[in-house]
Specification:
There is one protein chain. This protein is an alpha/beta fold. It has 8 helices and 9 strands. The strands form 2 sheets. Strands 3-2-1-4-7-5-8 form a 7-stranded mixed sheet, with helices on both faces. It has a two-stranded parallel ribbon with strand order 6-9. Strand 2, helix 2 and strand 3 form a beta-alpha-beta unit. Helix 5 runs parallel beside helix 8.
Length: about 250
């Protein structure tokens, strides 16, 4: 299926990404020239928001939302989703630090030919992680394994943030999302699955950021694991206590 790129929005949340946002936007525009870009900046003190405004003035395909507070990655994505759903039929989310490769956006778009949501996956054949220390890789893989176990999901890279959606998928789950931090990615997948939408994974390359400072800390990951564990417990309880449907009576004699 040939995509109409003018109906596709790439959402990039930023906080202190002044060194990264310009080259990232340039790579997105080069890889998929007709897509639109939405930068959602959380009042970065390093000038990211001002640079984003400058990019938008130079390129009509670039748009910017300025948020007053820094209150989580999920909150930034929710603002971007709500902004984009009124005008676009496909929405792509990606990090603004260079860890996701814009050149692989077409893989996500192709995945949406057959699914309601597509996840760029580091942990399926063809996917890879570049320049991450072994300890970080073990933490990521172990966290994904635990979340998959708790929620009984088959997605291999459940915490990944390079994803694509049809508009109807996001419209169905947006109001049910309760996470604003790192766990937002899991919350998205969990609600897409609960609404019986289809998800496919496509292989991507994930690279350690070259500039700027990571916002990820161990406390954020522990919080996500605790929350998903609770979701799994609640889901199992509901399944155990769900009353079976009564058998249909028969009038035959």
């Amino acid at each position: 299926m040939e995509e109409n790129f003018s109906e596709i929005l790439v959402i990039i949340p930023t906080y202190n990404e002044v060194d990264n946002i310009k080259p990232i936007c340039a790579r997105v525009r080069q890889a998929t020239p007709q897509v639109d870009i939405l930068i959602v900046d959380d009042s970065s003190p390093d000038g990211t928001g001002e640079l984003a405004d400058s990019l938008a003035e130079q390129d009509p395909h670039v748009h910017v939302i300025h948020r007053k507070d820094k209150n989580g990655l999920g909150a930034a994505y929710l603002a971007g989703f709500r902004w984009g759903l009124s005008n676009y039929r496909i929405l792509i989310q990606m990090d603004g630090d260079g860890s996701h490769h814009p050149e692989q956006i077409p893989r996500l778009l192709k995945g949406l030919d057959t699914a309601d949501m597509v996840k760029g996956s580091r942990y399926i054949p063809g996917g890879e992680v570049v320049n991450w220390p072994k300890s970080r890789q073990l933490l990521s893989r172990g966290g994904s394994w635990w979340i998959r176990l708790m929620l009984r999901l088959k997605i291999r890279d459940i915490t990944g943030g390079f994803n694509g959606f049809h508009a109807h998928t996001l419209e169905a789950v947006l109001d049910d999302l309760s996470s604003v931090g790192f766990n937002f990615q899991v919350d998205l997948v969990w609600n897409v699955v609960k609404n019986n939408f289809t998800i496919v994974e496509v292989p991507i390359t994930f690279s350690q950021r070259e500039m700027g400072q990571s916002k990820m800390g161990p406390g954020i990951i522990v919080e996500a694991l605790l929350k998903t564990t609770w979701w799994g417990i609640v889901d199992r309880f509901h399944r155990l206590t769900r009353k079976p449907k009564p058998a249909e009576s028969s009038d035959e004699t």
